[in-house]
Design a protein that fits this description.
With 234 residues, the protein is an alpha/beta fold. The chain is 39% helix and 26% strand. The chain has eleven helices and ten strands. It has helices at 40-47, 70-75, 93-100, 104-108, 110-120, 122-126, 137-149, 167-182, 194-200, 218-223, 225-230, and strands at residues 2-11, 14-24, 29-33, 55-60, 63-64, 78-81, 155-159, 186-190, 203-208, 211-217. It has a six-stranded mixed β-sheet with strand order 6-7-8-3-9-10, with helices on both faces. Strand 9 (203-208) and strand 10 form a beta hairpin. It starts with a strand and ends with a helix. The mean pLDDT is 94. The structure holds adenosine-5'-triphosphate. Adenosine-5'-triphosphate is lined by residues 11, 14, 16, 34, 36-42, 192.
Length: 234
């Protein structure tokens, strides 16, 4: 479904991602794991069309994303839920969700999508008319994911959805991510907590200094000495 071939991207003189190659198949949940500053967020931003590629190629459903802007990439079925959530704090929950229906197909399906998002997040339905800025951190993360789902993506890019949340909120967010994946949306997840990422996802890529250094199915990575020592503290 998605393939990155030796992708490089950065900011000014800084090459934050030197060479990332990865593949995601339909229906999978795949994690990108690695230390702070390794280049995970930059990789997601490059896929979403928010950063130009310095080298390499990104192919989604057989089509190169080169030269497409973020809006055109959403149209193809790929939605990005950024780190830091980036909601509109003075707009209501419902208004924020409606802004997620960015494509003409998503706008046409808006009522059904809203009902699905509210079924997935009853907490958001209860707060439908509340300003997004007054929600708790966990509720804001639910809203950010809900807004991503309103685009009716086939592939959802999730950047650290559990960051800064209390343990109970983390658990409910990750359960929702699992449900969304089981219902058929393919997921690429950046997650700071490697154990949680490997509990949830089928496979993972380890990113270190802007390159993929290790990849494999969850069980193989859980057995890897490097992952155990560097990321699981074992
Ligand atoms: P984290 O878990 O801390 O978010 P990450 O693996 O997602 O880490 P990135 O956010 O991709 O890492 O950052 C990779 C490198 O790029 C870091 O050295 C970071 O300081 C730098 N960087 C990120 N965003 C910018 C920016 N907007 N301008 C300049 N440098 C940036």
């Amino acid at each position: 479904m998605l393939a990155l071939e030796s992708v490089a991207a950065g900011y000014g003189d800084l090459v934050a991602v030197r060479s990332v190659s990865l593949e995601i198949h339909p229906g999978e949940c795949v994690a990108l794991i690695g230390a702070n500053g390794a280049g995970k967020t930059t990789t997601l931003r490059a896929i979403a069309g928010l950063l130009p590629l310095r080298a390499g190629r990104i192919v989604f459903d057989g089509r190169s994303l080169g030269g497409l802007n973020a809006r055109q990439i959403v149209e193809l079925g790929l939605a990005h839920v950024p780190e830091g959530r980036q909601l509109f704090p003075s707009l209501t929950v419902r208004e924020n969700l409606e802004m997620g229906a960015r494509t003409s197909a998503a706008r046409a399906a808006r009522r059904g999508s809203l009902a699905e998002v509210f079924a997935l997040f009853p907490r958001l339905l209860e707060r439908e008319r509340q300003a997004a800025g007054t929600l708790s951190g966990g509720e804001q993360q639910m809203l950010a994911i809900g807004r991503g789902l309103m685009a009716r993506p086939r592939l959802l890019l999730l950047d650290e959805p559990s960051i800064g949340l209390a343990p109970l909120a983390v658990r409910s967010i990750l359960e929702i991510v699992e449900t969304v994946n089981r219902r058929g949306t393919t997921i690429l997840l950046v997650e700071q907590n490697v154990r949680r990422a490997l509990d949830l996802c089928h496979r993972a890529y380890v990113v270190e200094n802007g390159a993929v250094t290790l990849a494999g199915p969850r069980d193989a990575l859980l057995r890897s000495d490097h992952v155990r020592q560097a990321y699981l503290g074992l």
